[in-house]
Specification:
With 451 residues, this protein is of the alpha+beta class. It contains 9 helices and 4 strands, in the order αααββαααββααα. The protein has helices at residues 2-17, 24-34, 36-56, 120-186, 192-227, 258-278, 331-399, 405-440, 444-450, and strands at 62-73, 101-113, 284-296, 315-325. The protein has a 4-stranded antiparallel sheet with strand order 1-2-3-4, with no helix packed on it. Helix 5 packs parallel to helix 8 (405-440) and helix 6 packs antiparallel against helix 7. It is elongated, with a radius of gyration of 40 Å.
């Protein structure tokens, strides 16, 4: 309950900090800071930093402390027992079989340190470092994707609002036309079918308006989800988005895109694992020091001591040594693991090439979309002017008794559609510019143009 209250309080604080109405740059900034997927990537990055610290602890000496107290029999048998984890070992001379039991105790400490390792520990640290770098690139890629999606949602909402305005103007014109034709029909200068047709056109315009409002509310809900506020509290400032856009930036380098950078980091991570495997098939050297004490109630003749004999250690020892271990037959497994990593590296390299090709394809499609959108935007004013003149002439012809209601309705519908196309033409050019910016991996230049 307390945790939920904290989350609610944080959400309210975020909402209070968000400017209203919100600009495109502010919406992108809010989304990249607050969207959950970004926080997921940031926490994963923090986890990789912890993994690096864990790998660095391999440089530290190992210090183990052990203590034991038991009550057991003390028969000992002559002979060898192969290493196994089930049967406890008994030390001391061979004695006759007995069911007598005594106290046994042991306590000790062991310090072990590997003074040199032919680069194994450093290679393991580099693996974790490469994982951290990959996590950092994942954070940047996630932030970029969220920013691009937010900008696209913002443009969608701006376009939807322009469609609503054009649809409202269309409804108002059909109502005015209905009033005009109704007066003419009531004066019995025109047949009643003209009024019916006009009412149908008004209903059609109102349906179109309802659909435009629905699309606007859906776009508002999407943008509100990205920035973390309630849809009813969201208001945008289109700004320069309603003006003629400038030329789109032409700089493009696929390798600098966040997705490509992340994939390159994945290749580097595999290479780090290969390097660690190359350093693994070496002897392991350990400098060790131990001190320990043991106690036992058993005597050399097989008898036991008093009731508490052996309850605590009564014999001490210490040792200092230098040990070497070389896993001779591990080379086969290491060779197989390295071969697997080589194929993993080739797979990641192929994915990098795939990412670059996809970005190049997206770039080409975005440029084609941009060129087409500019041509449409340049032609729309001619279409809009002609539609307005057609609507005026159709209405004048109808008033003079030279035209029909169908001609007026068609002209009004063409004018409404032309106004919608005009309101969307410039925004479509901006959307194409956003698509180009997405392929370049940088939205800063696009956001600067919108300010």
């Amino acid at each position: 309950m307390r945790y939920s209250f904290c989350l609610l309080a944080c959400s309210l604080c975020f909402a209070a900090e968000l400017p209203t109405p919100i600009t495109l740059a502010a919406a992108v900034s809010a989304a990249t800071q607050r969207y959950p997927s970004v926080r997921v990537s940031e926490e994963q990055l923090a986890a990789t930093r912890g993994a690096i610290n864990l790998a660095r602890t391999a440089y530290l000496p190992r210090f183990d402390v052990y203590g034991q107290l038991n009550r057991a029999t003390h028969n000992n048998i002559f002979g060898m027992l192969l290493p196994q984890p089930v049967i406890p070992q008994i030390s001391g001379p061979v004695v006759n079989s007995t069911w007598n039991n005594v106290w046994g105790s042991a306590v000790g400490a062991l310090v072990s340190w590997e003074p040199f390792d032919f680069g194994v520990r450093q290679a393991n640290v580099e693996i974790q470092e490469s994982g951290r770098r990959r996590a950092e690139t994942a954070v940047r890629r996630t932030q970029f994707e969220v920013a691009a999606l937010t900008a696209d949602s913002y443009l969608t909402l701006a376009a939807s609002e322009q469609m609503v305005r054009a649809a409202e103007a269309g409804v108002e014109r059909t109502r005015t036309l209905e009033t005009l034709i109704g007066a003419v029909v009531n004066a019995q200068l025109r047949p009643g079918v003209d009024l019916s047709r006009t009412r149908a056109e008004r209903a059609l315009a109102e349906t179109q308006l309802a659909q435009a409002r629905q699309a606007a509310e859906m776009a508002r809900a999407t943008l509100a989800q990205m920035v973390g506020v309630a849809p009813a509290e969201l208001e945008i400032v289109p700004g320069r988005l309603l003006d003629a856009p400038p030329e789109a930036p032409s700089a493009f380098e696929a390798a600098s895109h966040p997705a490509a950078v992340e994939q390159q980091a994945a290749i580097d991570e595999v290479k780090a694992r290969e390097k660690a495997l190359d350093r693994t098939w070496f002897p392991r050297f350990n400098l060790q020091a131990s001190t320990f004490g043991r106690g036992s109630g058993a005597q050399l003749d097989g008898t036991g001591g008093d009731a508490f004999s052996g309850f605590g250690p009564n014999t001490g020892n210490w040792a200092v040594g230098f040990s070497v271990m070389f896993p001779v037959f591990d080379f086969a497994g290491l060779r197989a693991r390295r071969e697997s990593e080589v194929h993993n590296e080739r797979a990641e390299a192929a994915r990098f090439e795939q990412v670059v090709r996809e970005l190049e394809g997206q770039r080409n499609r975005a440029v084609a979309l941009y060129r087409g959108a500019r041509e449409v935007a340049a032609n729309i004013p001619v279409q809009l002017d002609a539609a307005r003149q057609t609507a005026q002439q159709a209405e004048a012809r109808y008033k003079a008794g030279l035209g029909t209601a169908v001609e007026v309705a068609d002209a009004e519908r063409l004018l409404t559609q032309s106004e919608i196309d005009d309101s969307l033409a410039k925004l479509n050019v901006w959307r194409a510019m956003l698509a180009i910016a997405e392929t370049s991996g940088h939205l800063d230049s696009f956001l600067d143009l919108v300010k």
